[in-house]
């Protein structure tokens, strides 16, 4: 049975073909999906040629962690498929019941392959266990699901999405309502120990043929989406300038309808949308990788911005919880702002509007927000990477009013969506840009002002994608065993190793910082680099040039130290 296969968790280097074949046959006997059964049967028929493929599919189950599930769409325990989702849903619903959680389970999904099927199966598992299930009316952004958890008083929410992963992936994210998530975690992604509890409940699920399936759940109406849009527009001031021409792309994702509706309701001209990328398409045909940070991903957006004379260009990732901002750079060029730049701009904008409370970011983000809060007498906190931690920053010592992470995630209204939200972030960026335009100024002008006041905080990232995760473990072991004593010629005066809480190493000098960690969602090793360069005599550009050169040199030093 599937549960028995999962519980064994075979090692990835298994070479016993007969054993794997037997594992696969037991899986086939319990797989509820004829399509994936046919897929796995075809792999078995190709043995021994397909031995490595089969071993990888049975290398162990997708582990349910704080990001839920995420993996390639394929048959077998080490993939996203109907069998894995059925078991995950049964485990989740069982865990919710064991915790005494009441209320409905609300379920959203994006437009990726399998998303709707996985959402509907989750609803059937919930109703089969006697719990009401509410399905969002169509493929919608992740922030709408996070909003719905709070708005509908749900015990939990499930979002079927792989965010900005490749087309062949899908995923399964879980949010908790106030009853089980508490005040800080109401409508937020799960954190330990909930993830371990749900994982254990998933492993305890018996044969899938014995999981009761009920009604497909109740499909919510468009009034929920209208409510989200109405609340989203309340994030910005009603009397500000709205004279702004925006070019926009949802990158073949689900953000376009909601974002354009929000802009229209807020009184902005409706953004022009890249026509080739306007409709959801799970193949993401015009981009090599559906992440706005990837090279070439916003080329069509920039072309539209040029042809329409746009003041600003904005991109969401496919599930619209992230927001990329592209600004004019010279007469004809464009430049994507780094997440840290947008994070500082939004924070500064809220501070200028008089928004008081806790401002938070993560250990891998720029230290500029810390400096801004210190200078302006505002509460500040930083957390481990991920919005599940950001929205819990401060432990309730002060109300969170803003949080961001450098990977293009921004939460400008925690009481609206307690997660990153690419729609409200885009609205707030537009509000700021329109106000500056009315003064004959731009977002880059405001960045120069911040640099003049706090110094240039230049950030960059060294990111290495690997085929074998052992390469990442070896690099982390290397940096721990031979930690650099100098960076850029300055002594390393602080070294932090966050094990066992997190696999993170932090190095600091008087003017530089390096944070090294494996990615939590992709097979990547990441090193986050920052150099702080003071501005002398108001010469911001010279300071920027010095900082950029220093970061280039720092990248080379860190790469050598990691052996990559």
Automatic annotation (TrEMBL):
GO molecular function: magnesium ion binding; phosphopentomutase activity
PROSITE patterns listed in its UniProt record: PGM_PMM
One of the Pfam families matching this protein, by short name: PGM_PMM_I
Domain Alpha-D-phosphohexomutase alpha/beta/alpha: 63-177, 227-329, 339-452
InterPro entries per the UniProt record, alphabetical: A-D-PHexomutase_a/b/a-I, A-D-PHexomutase_a/b/a-I/II/III, A-D-PHexomutase_a/b/a-II, A-D-PHexomutase_a/b/a-III, A-D-PHexomutase_C, A-D-PHexomutase_C_sf, A-D-PHexomutase_CS, Alpha-D-phosphohexomutase_SF
SUPFAM superfamilies (UniProt xref): Phosphoglucomutase, C-terminal domain (SSF55957), Phosphoglucomutase, first 3 domains (SSF53738)
Protein name, per record: Phosphomannomutase
Biological source species: Micromonospora coriariae
